Amino acid sequence: MPLPNDASPLTTPAGPARGRRGFLQSACRHCFGLGALGLGLGAAAQTSPESPALTLPGRFPPPALDSDEGGLWALMDREEQRLRRSPFALRDPALTGYLQDLVCRLGGEHCADVRVHVVSNPSFNATMAPNGMMQVWSGLLLRMDNEAQLAAVLGHELGHYLERHSLERLRDTRSRAAVAQFIGLFGVAGMVANLGITASMFAFTRDQESRADRLGMTLMQRAGYDGAQAALVWDNLLGEMRVTGGDDAGSRNPLLATHPAPANRRDELMRLAGGRGGELGASAFEAAIRGHRLEWLLAEVRRGQYEQSLALFNRGLTRSPDDAALRFARGEVYRLREGPGDLESAAADLVRASAAPQAPVQALRALGLLRRRQGDVQAAAAAFEQYLARAPQASDAALIQTYLTQLQP
Ligand SMILES: [Zn+2]
């Protein structure tokens, strides 16, 4: 099927609807037809929730180019090209390779059809487009405690892919705007727009979610991971969302908007896990993200959702009180929030973080700024001097030198 020559980015929900109307209308006319053909996957994935035994569908042959599904794939392929060129694409072959290997461990032969892209965005999100484009956002990686939790999320997304849930949802959709938003959901440009709202129009059904949960659980346990970690992922995320409260607390998070998380979901995952235990892969995961963790922590602080960030950082510091990067990040939240008692809390964290053997040099800069704000001239000058001694080439070295000069009595 010829596709409209529309290279405009998907910055607004209305954008793609204009350029792709022909295809989209055609796709919807045939929605029922596609559904009636059936893809033969339902039966393969139908399994008792009690049983981890599962026959996966074989690899999907590429759809015929002149079919509606082929048209959809072509659109997704184009979004993927756009993502590859995007400034949000995190180009780290080692990290991408690590994630791709994990997909292979979970998805078996399907791994040949799945391409992982890491996206620099502090929100918790992962998506899997029907053409095999998987996006994993850095905010999700920052929130995983170990490889088993990551396997749970990727396994769940693979579950949607193996059962082709997004195609099902597309076929159910009659609204052209919603179809356009669906496509935007998988485009990197879509995330710049209000993805929470975009995504909520395309929430999977409860049945699709349970099926993806069951499939994800089976895939992760088959690969040897501890299934109980799947429940902890939701537990942790909901704990973070709960601190802000309100009905929209979840919808502002892209993943929660597309993945409604009823209160019993955690319990159901725990039940599915069945107390079998398994691998956590904590050190492998830690090694894989080590090079990016500080930048992701700072991106999380810059998000400006201080209560959520504190919930996340407090959870981490309870487990690892000597984590200097995490302590620095929490100190930054307190320093920037400036609520009652915050500057004192910031000082405690930044002093401890700066003194740690693995202290990020930025902790000294933050400590200097804090002391300057508190009017402690001597302490500010000492921190700035240490910062410049350790990072003489820092991009803000001249600025900090100016502060130092101003601090002279
Ligand atoms: Zn899902």
Describe this structure in words.
The chain has helices spanning 14-19, 21-29, 31-37, 42-45, 68-85, 93-107, 138-143, 147-162, 165-172, 176-186, 188-192, 195-200, 206-222, 228-242, 254-258, 265-273, 282-302, 306-319, 324-337, 342-355, 362-373, 377-390, 397-407, and strands at 115-119, 126-128, 133-137. The chain is mainly α. The chain has two domains: 14-32 and 58-273, no CATH class; 320-407, Alpha Horseshoe (Serine Threonine Protein Phosphatase 5, Tetratricopeptide repeat), CATH 1.25.40.10. A three-stranded mixed β-sheet has the order 1-3-2, with helices on both faces. The termini are far apart. Mean pLDDT is 80; it is low at 1-51, 189-200 and 246-251. The structure holds zinc ion. Zinc ion (ZN) binds at residues 156, 160, 204, 209, 212, 259. Zinc ion is lined by residues 156, 160, 204, 209, 212, 259.
